[in-house]
Design brief:
Number of helices of chain B: 28
Oligomer: heterodimer
Largest sheet of chain A: 5 strands, parallel
Radius of gyration of chain A: 21 Å
Number of strands of chain B: 18
CATH class of the largest domain in chain A: Alpha Beta
Distance between the termini of chain B: 94 Å
Strand order of the largest sheet of chain A: 2-5-8-1-9
CATH superfamily of the largest domain in chain A: P-loop containing nucleotide triphosphate hydrolases
CATH topology of the largest domain in chain A: Rossmann fold
Strand order of the largest sheet of chain B: 8-9-15-14-13-16-17-18
Shape of chain A: elongated
Chain lengths: 271, 776
């Protein structure tokens, strides 16, 4: 049996409650309903799930989905060893066996035929058939499936099938309001509130450009990076350029505009 | 002194007031009365700045000019302008005078002597703007080069006709050097010389800035930050920093010398200049780039849009309104700086800093000066002014704004108080102090005022005007493309107009009949096509690493292992999707030469190239349709650069059906082959497609040519450039040429991507095969 404790979240993750999401999630968990969290990248989806796993005291198995991932990577596969073949459970199977919250991050990155394997676990059956092994796993009573996805930036090709979407309850996440976001940044990194507010201001300038050359605005995560750099003694304007502008765009015009936004926000020689 | 015709001797004998002047007058040895009239005044200026030796050189040069036989005008121009020229070239005429005299001699020797007068007349204005002897020399070089290359000759090597453009060039020169750097001026001149050397009338139009090309090239060569280059950045700026967006419309600053237009905004958009020079910083003031100047203008307008409300203007005097505008501008700027503190640096660098004592209130109207100082003080904490009233109002202004945003009405009240407090009788004087009071990032505040009563002077001009129903536009408006000029290695801006239209329709059954005719060939093609068809999912077995264990192979391997044989480690398998993602546009040359009959043994029916092309294109279209690749067909021909017809036969989203076949059946040939523009236009459609591979297949029977181009290499070079541009956009161009002599040029244009078909009769068979070979 797999060691269940290794998947437990030991320390309380910092999560700033924005609305009623905690209560709602707890209700969904009580009913073991599958949950989908949507929202732009770096707005706190994964942090929220981690926080809920800690709050509920359940193990959390996170799978970062990618293009190369196949059904076997989720369910498990045969491996060869000295005595012949040996079955190795995949993360989804493990979660179903030990009763963990299985969190499939960025599910749309996986190919559509892969995601179909989660279907039997997400409806009333709550089973996982391992056809290669000839075994039918009944999901543990504590098992819950959570997926995250970012409806924004992926191509039209990458969308969830309706049959997959309609198996989940969903939370819509977005970047927090400016004051709240500044508070999060300050709490997370220890920079002072004024700088946090300025960082948020730059990020919001970039978010206004979403759809006008930027696929995604500057995320809370990037603001936190910038604030962390500032905390380590980097000048705010350099930190912003490095952590907030350079990562998100190669477009010279946008870069120039955002650099200007940084200069305009952090006055060079305050009078 | 009465003027009129005087005997020549009269002028020579004229007595000057001062003996010194009289001596110079004798030295000049000039018989022109108009010169004698102004000689003293001219000499006054010269004497004040020139040394004795310089004076001698000056009078000697003038004497030479007076004896050219061109009348008094060149001499007058020289005498009047030269001191100013020398002053502009930092007071030193030494290196410059021989240059200018050389230029005059060159013009005198050539048939261009009429240009001497305009040359001298505008030289001072040019020199004032160029400000250095080297620059002026460059300018003279450019002019002489222009003259040498546009003076015509009929027989032999002697120039016999004057350059038509040269006088016009000199007349426009002050404006040109104001707008262009010398390099830009050289390019602009070069363009005119090369394109209009054999067109006297057009040459004059070009050099007198009357033609559209001339403006377009001028605009391209201008100094500073062009609006067109930063338009997108500015749009992003509005969206990102101010969550706003509006149409930004540039106005031209090149042609309004007297009244410089000021930025403004109204319901139709924000108007900004079409170019901004960088502002060089001095001392503590930092540099401001042209882009930042645009940003400052837009930010200020945004500020007004956010925070200003229109006021009723009727009860206020113009002075009061001006004061309200200054105060309101400052309020808006303060709020903007509050939003983005970094703007203060830009605003202050652009804001003049008038000296406190620059204006004398006894003799001049100082209101503007006072307000500009106040405006500076309101924005700049380190303004350094000491006037008590000013400081008092700065304090009151900040008090107003400390609580919040305040409002236009509140700030207007403060402004009126300021006007009342500082009013002086001299404000009414006509002599207004303007220096250092113009704040050019601010708009004209037309949005700030509402007029309830119209003025007495207004008449009812705004009676309903009926718009004549204009003629319905036929077809799409033309799209303009640049053309590559190989000689100068530049683009000619907006040179070619491409008109796009749907091809006329004929009878679709004709095409079906053609396909019927080639039924045997079609069968053969069909077999080849089936081989090419993509198989969607492919399983790749025998992989050392893969996504899945291939159980059969694995167990075999295990058995081998157990029985002591080396096992095969390739026991995994993976999947690969194998699809064709190809998009193709077939571009047909529909020029006149297609109407020629095909010679040769293969062609028994005496078909024209056009008919053969029709067959070939039909077969190809059918074949591509079978493969399922998205494809489009278009034809083109041209009649000078003003009319390139791009005819749409099949679009990517259209199906290969009777409508398309009908258009194909109606294919007609005529006119010439301007290939580059057609390639660019076709390429912009392909570039917008999403596909792994984009192919532009060009079917042509000759080299690029047009009736308005005499130089054979020009259109070839342009076509090559177009192919390069397309390849940079990810579009592969392939040319199938039917011209047996194509080897001479086709490689130069298309590189290796071409095929010359010797036996045109084979075209219907070869074209589909070529396509398959290309996309295999």
């Amino acid at each position: 049996m797999t060691d269940k404790t290794q998947y437990l979240v030991r320390q309380e993750p910092y999560y700033q409650v924005q609305g009623r999401e905690v209560v709602l999630y707890e209700a969904a968990y009580r009913a073991r309903l599958p949950v989908m969290v949507k929202g732009p990248t770096g707005c706190g989806k994964s942090r929220f799930i981690e926080y809920m796993a800690w709050k509920l005291g359940k193990p959390l198995i996170t799978v970062a989905c990618n293009e190369d991932m196949t059904a076997s990577d989720l369910v498990g596969r045969y491996l060869l060893d000295a005595d012949g073949t040996r079955w190795l459970d995949g993360p989804l199977t493990t979660a179903a066996r030990i009763g963990a919250i299985c969190y499939l991050d960025e599910i749309v990155e996986a190919r559509q035929d892969t995601t179909v394997v989660i279907h039997p676990l997400t409806d009333h059956r709550r089973t996982l058939p391992l056809d290669k092994k000839g075994e039918l796993i009944e999901a543990h009573a504590d098992f819950q499936l959570v997926i995250s996805y970012n409806p924004g930036y992926q191509s039209l090709m990458k969308d969830l099938k309706q049959s997959t979407k309609q198996r989940f309850t969903a939370f819509d996440f977005d970047y927090p309001a400016a004051a709240l976001e500044a508070q999060i940044v300050a709490r997370e990194t220890g920079v002072d509130a004024a700088i946090a507010a300025q960082l948020v201001k730059v990020a919001q300038a970039a978010r206004n450009l979403k759809g006008h050359g930027l696929d995604e605005g500057i995320s809370t995560r990037l603001i936190v990076y910038a604030a962390t750099l500032i905390g380590h003694g980097v000048a705010p304007r350099d930190a912003c350029r490095m952590a907030m502008v350079r990562p998100i765009t190669d477009d010279a015009d946008i870069r120039a505009t955002l650099d200007h936004a940084i200069d305009a926000t952090f006055d060079a020689n305050p009078a | 002194m009465p003027t009129g015709i005087r005997p020549v001797t009269d002028a020579r004998q004229r007595q000057m007031a001062h003996p010194q002047v009289q001596a110079w007058w004798q030295a000049l040895d000039c018989g022109f009365a108009p010169v004698a009239d102004v000689f003293e005044e001219c000499l006054d200026e010269a004497l004040s700045s020139f040394s004795k030796a310089q004076m001698e050189a000056y009078i000697e040069a003038a004497r030479f000019i007076g004896k050219l036989g061109r009348g008094p005008e060149p001499l007058l121009a020289f005498l009047e302008e030269w001191p100013a020229v020398a002053a502009a070239a930092s007071g030193d005429q030494e290196p410059l005078l021989p240059q200018v005299m050389g230029a005059i001699r060159a013009m005198q020797k050539s048939p261009n002597s009429t240009a001497i007068t305009p040359f001298l007349q505008t030289l001072a204005a040019v020199a004032r703007r160029l400000q250095s002897a080297e620059q002026i020399e460059l300018y003279i070089d450019i002019a002489l080069n222009l003259m040498a290359r546009t003076s015509g000759s009929i027989h032999g090597h002697h120039d016999t006709f004057p350059s038509p453009g040269l006088p016009a060039f000199f007349e426009q020169a002050p404006r040109l050097v104001g707008l262009l750097s010398t390099a830009g001026l050289r390019n602009w001149t070069e363009f005119g010389v090369r394109n209009y050397a054999s067109h006297p009338q057009r040459q004059v139009e070009y050099f007198s800035l009357k033609s559209a090309d001339s403006h377009a090239v001028l605009q391209r060569e201008r100094r500073g930050t062009l609006f067109a280059d930063v338009e997108r950045s500015l749009d992003l700026y509005l969206r990102a920093l101010w969550r706003d967006s509006d149409l930004i419309v540039p106005y031209s600053t090149a042609f309004d010398e007297l009244r410089k237009p000021v930025p403004y905004y109204d319901k139709l958009g924000m108007r900004v200049p079409d170019v901004f020079d960088d502002v060089a910083g001095t001392g503590s003031i930092s540099n401001v780039s042209g882009l930042d100047r645009y940003r400052a203008v837009l930010a200020h307008m945004i500020g007004h849009r956010r925070w200003s409300t229109a006021q009723i203007a009727d009860n206020w005097s113009p002075f009061q309104r001006m004061a309200v505008e200054f105060f309101e501008d400052c309020r808006v700027d303060t709020l903007l700086i509050r939003e983005y503190p970094g703007l203060r640096r830009i605003f202050l660098a652009l804001h003049p800093h008038p000296r406190q004592d620059a204006c004398d209130p006894e003799t001049t109207s100082c209101l503007r000066h006072r307000l500009a100082m106040l405006s500076r003080a309101l924005l700049d904490p380190g303004h350094g002014y000491t006037d008590a009233v000013l400081l008092d109002f700065v304090r009151r202004f900040h008090e107003h704004l400390s609580a919040g945003e305040s409002g236009t009405a509140d700030i207007a009240a403060l402004a009126l108080a300021y006007v009342t407090r500082t009013r002086r009788p001299s404000d009414q004087l006509a002599n207004i102090h303007f220096d250092d009071t113009v704040i050019d990032y601010r708009d004209d505040n037309r949005h700030l005022w509402k007029f309830i009563e119209e003025g007495d002077e207004e008449q009812a001009f705004d009676a309903e005007r009926k718009l004549e129903p204009s003629e319905e536009p036929r077809g799409l408006p033309p799209r303009r493309y640049p053309e590559w000029d190989d000689a100068s290695q530049t683009y000619r801006p907006d040179w070619v107009s491409v008109y796009e239209a749907l091809h006329a329709s004929g009878t679709a059954a004709d095409i079906d009949r053609l396909l019927q005719k080639h039924a045997a060939l079609a069968k053969h093609l069909k077999r080849l096509l089936d081989l090419l068809k993509p198989q969607d999912k492919v399983r790749i077995r025998y992989q050392e690493e893969g996504s899945d264990l291939d159980l059969d192979v694995a167990i075999n391997s295990l058995i081998d292992f157990r029985s002591g044989v080396a096992p095969d480690p390739r026991i995994n398998m993976s999947h690969r999707t194998d699809g064709r993602d190809i998009c193709v546009l077939l571009l047909l040359d529909l020029s006149e030469s297609l109407n020629e009959k095909v010679a040769g043994t293969g062609n028994v029916d005496g078909q024209t190239v056009l008919e053969l092309s029709q067959e070939a294109v039909s077969l190809l279209a059918w074949a591509i349709d079978c493969l399922g690749d998205p494809f489009a067909i278009a034809g083109f021909h041209s009649n000078t650069r003003h009319e390139v017809r791009y005819q749409h036969i099949k679009g990517f989203s259209e199906r290969w059906d009777d409508t398309v076949k009908a258009r194909l059946a109606a294919m007609r040939a005529g006119w010439s082959t301007r290939m580059g523009a057609a390639l660019r236009h076709a390429g912009h459609y392909l570039a917008a497609r999403r596909a792994d591979k984009k192919i532009l297949l060009l079917l042509t029977d000759g080299e690029p040519a047009d009736v308005d181009v005499t130089e054979p290499n020009h259109l070839r070079a342009d076509a090559r450039k177009a192919v390069e541009e397309l390849s940079a956009q990810g579009v592969d161009t392939f040319c199938l040429s039917l011209d047996p002599k194509a080897d001479e040029y086709v490689r130069g244009i298309f590189g290796k991507r071409h095929l010359v078909l010797d036996r045109v009769a084979q075209l219907p068979e070869k074209l589909p095969l070529l396509y398959m070979a290309l996309t295999r």
